[in-house]
Amino acid sequence: MEISRISSKGQVTIPKTIRDLLKLNEGDRVAFLEDNGKVVITKASLIALRELQDALGTEAQQKGITEQDLLNELEVVREEMWNEQKK
């Protein structure tokens, strides 16, 4: 557990061990997620990636695209790429 103090402006310093764990660097954006009275901090880019995954999953489900369909298409693309490299 790490502890940090809130400044008069409501700012908190993220302890170095946590910054290292999350691979946060100067200028990175973080997101705060509240869940039933608990707050989780994570890289904002991870939130954007999760939202994209959810959106793609929803669209695929609406169009009836299955995981097996995606795996089959991936195999076709891999084969095409392999054939391109051999040229």
From TrEMBL:
Lineage: superkingdom: Bacteria
Domain SpoVT-AbrB: 1-46
One Pfam short name: MazE_antitoxin
GO molecular function, one term: DNA binding
Keyword DNA-binding part of the UniProt annotation: yes
Matching PROSITE patterns: SPOVT_ABRB
Keyword match Transmembrane: no
NCBIfam families named among the record's database cross-references: lp_hng_hel_AbrB
Name of the protein: Looped-hinge helix DNA binding domain-containing protein, AbrB family
Organism field: Desulfosporosinus lacus DSM 15449
